[in-house]
TrEMBL record:
<dbReference type="InterPro" id="IPR039298">
    <property type="entry name" value="ACOT13"/>
</dbReference>
<keyword id="KW-0378">Hydrolase</keyword>
<dbReference type="InterPro" id="IPR003736">
    <property type="entry name" value="PAAI_dom"/>
</dbReference>
<dbReference type="GO" id="GO:0047617">
    <property type="term" value="F:fatty acyl-CoA hydrolase activity"/>
</dbReference>
<dbReference type="InterPro" id="IPR006683">
    <property type="entry name" value="Thioestr_dom"/>
</dbReference>
<comment type="similarity">
    <text>Belongs to the thioesterase PaaI family.</text>
</comment>
<dbReference type="InterPro" id="IPR029069">
    <property type="entry name" value="HotDog_dom_sf"/>
</dbReference>
<feature type="domain" description="Thioesterase">
    <location>
        <begin position="69"/>
        <end position="144"/>
    </location>
</feature>
<protein>
    <submittedName>
        <fullName>Uncharacterized domain 1-containing protein</fullName>
    </submittedName>
</protein>
<dbReference type="Pfam" id="PF03061">
    <property type="entry name" value="4HBT"/>
</dbReference>
Amino acid sequence: MIEELKNVWEEGSEEEQEILRLALQAIRQKRERNSSFISGFLGLKGELVDERTYRFHIPITVFMHNSTGAVHGGLLATLVDSVMGSLVNRSLSPEEYAVTTELKMNYLRPGKGETLRAEATFLHRGQTLVVMEASVYDDRNKRVAHGTGTFMVLKR
């Protein structure tokens, strides 16, 4: 495996080398922040805009492309789920956590460009169920996708 990695690093295409760089980024982020590997592959770093809004800014990388060169719909859904989950889990007490129980996506246009921005807000906040919405925008501030999700609040 080491020889194969070395070969890709030295002789692989720029895209293949980028995938290796992203894999190392994912491992590093998992070790440093105990985040998921997909979070590291996507380069997820968020900011709390206010107590009701959370935001991710991420670069569009070759890892995210589908066969047409646009961002893969499954990765847009992952981004929407992640930004909503980040917001709801930040709002809970240390004894609680939330998991996704439902996710609905609308894909509005191809995700292209250099970066994406995802923003999540609350629609309803109950004690056991939280309903949220999130939108993903391209670097021209055009909405690429919109989703809603329901999260169940559980005790640790």
